[in-house]
Amino acid sequence: MTERAASGRRVGARGWEALLALTAVLVVGGVIVYAFRLSGFRLQAAVDEAARLDPAWRLDELLAARDLVPDAENAALVVADAASRLPKPWPPSSPRAPASTAAEAGPAADSLDVGTAFERASAIEDSRRLDDEAAGSLRAELAERREPLEIARKVVGYARGRHEVALGPALIDTNLEETQDARRVARMLQADAMLAAHDGRLDDAIEACRAQLGVARSIGDEPFIVSQLVRLGIDVAAARTARRVLALGEPSAGALAAFQRDLLAEREQPLARYALRGERAIHFELLDRLAQNRTPGGPVSGGSAPFGLNGAGFLAFGGRALLLEWMNELRTIADRPTPEWPAALKAWRARIAEVEGSRIARLRAIFPLLLVPGTESFLPSLLRSRAELGAVAILLAAERNRRATGAWPASVAEIPGEILPGPPVDPYTGGPYRLIRTERMLRVYSIGPNLIDERGLYDEKKWGRSPTDDDVGAVGYDPELRGRPPKAASP
To answer: Where is this region: Disordered (predicted)?
Structure first.
């Protein structure tokens, strides 16, 4: 073979290599363009669906469309005023300093720190009074907090509230200090209710429970799941405290009716809509900023990528549609009847698990998989809260009926409409709550998430962790069992 022929063949080979390389570049570029176009179509469809569900769904629109509450009607301002006069945390866990007077302190107030006293008071059986040590510690602490307590009690008269949300630079670093302050004020009112019930001031105790619900209302439509979880926690604590007040004596029928009305009104608030539309807006805005390289501190690190995007931005660009699709579906589930939630959530989780199990799909969904899973846990929490609030409201109505007739009702249907108009239904079944008489008690209950009637048996400490005894309910005691002395301490 001549040198000229060999050289020609080398040139030809290099030409073919260049042609193959160019073809590969064109194919890869075409795939990327197609992927971007497909992602754009999916994104637009998801945006349209979000706008159908909630016309003002983007973060700036959502914040601008929140309920406007005049200062004179804003429970959040009252709660903030009370919180500003309380120590952080409350209840404090350190031992109290000696009280100024023996009358303030009680016989054993200074031997038990307030945090331990509060926990002990919260854990005892409903129908038993506080022990002297816990009662003395709470009495001394509340005497010292007389000013914030009087302010907090006023929140009973407020129907709504609004915290001003100041978003952090990275959105997920948003500080919810006012919401956490509401928890401290609610705990103080809970201690006030427990001590008042212990002292026999039962109507005052129910009024303190109503004030707890007022603190919950002060959170309003704050668009964060954590905010609405705090609201749920305050609601449930107020309901359980009222249940305890009834187990210690007989508050007036008027006090019970007022709390029953407040409890049922709070139970019907659209907390799922507040929480899920807020989380959807915040997560989408976060990915949108990543995709457009608008993150705090300049560009996001992660290497280069086509169309001026870095690596993280490229993944965020493609993940926006999937995130919005998943969150839209959650919002749709929240609009369905509550008995349909568990099955719908199971199917929703299965679709996410399918993406998580695919290497290729998981890479494309890396940001949605970081942000979305766990969001759906709000709906089961809301179901349980509704079940418990409904049970306590029915128990209060049953107590009012017992006083009018001399006997506990055998079913919710036996309670007259003037005592319980529009009875709440079991959120797990859509049917009526169940009532059962046993051991000089009345059990009012929902059959819970396992849909098995366990005759009102439940363990609040194991809810969500035990497959049995997961009915959700409340227990009412016959009058002779109410207000029993505390159990003797274990040796």
So the answer is: 86-110, 459-491
Look up tokens 């009074």; give the residue: 129
Strand-strand pairing, 434-438 and 441-446: antiparallel
| Distance of alpha carbon 174 from alpha carbon 152, whole angstroms | 26
Single-letter amino acid, residue 25: V
Which pLDDT belongs to residue 290?
A: 82
Q: Read off the pTM.
A: 0.85
What is the largest distance, in Å, between two alpha-carbon atoms of the chain? 119
For the record, the structure tokens of 135 come out as: 């009662």
> Tokens at residue 315, please?
């993944």
Compute the distance between CA of residue 214 and CA of residue 193 in angstroms, rounded to an integer. Answer: 14
- CA dist., res. 335 & res. 368, Å (int): 22
Give the chain's mean pLDDT. Answer: 85
List phi, psi (to 5°) of 304: -90, 160
| C-alpha of 318 from chain center | 30
pLDDT at 28: 44
What does DSSP assign to residue 219?
A: T
Indicate the burial class of 289 (C-beta count within 10 angstroms; 0-12, 13-18, 19 or more). Answer: middle
Q: Quick one: DSSP state of residue 96?
A: P
Chain-centroid distance of CA 9 in Å reads: 73
Q: Are 224 and 278 in contact (CB under 8 A)?
A: yes
Distance CA 140, CA 137 (A): 5
Residue 171: CB atoms within 10 A of its CB come to 16
Q: How many residues would you count in the chain? A: 491
Q: Which residues pair with 442 in a beta bridge?
A: 437, 476
Tokens of 87: 């120590």
Percent of the chain with pLDDT over 90: 65
- Alpha helices by DSSP H, 340-479: 341-356, 359-364, 366-371, 378-405
pLDDT digits (tens, 9 = 90+) for 402-429: 999 999 999 999 999 999 999 999 999 9
| Nearest residue to 348 via CA among 360, 358, 334 | 334
Q: Is the peptide bond before 89 cis (omega within 30 degrees of 0)?
A: yes
The separation between the first and the last C-alpha atoms of the chain, rounded to the nearest angstrom, is 105
Q: For the segment 283-320, what is each residue's pLDDT rounded down to a tens digit?
A: 999 888 887 766 554 433 333 333 344 445 545 667 88
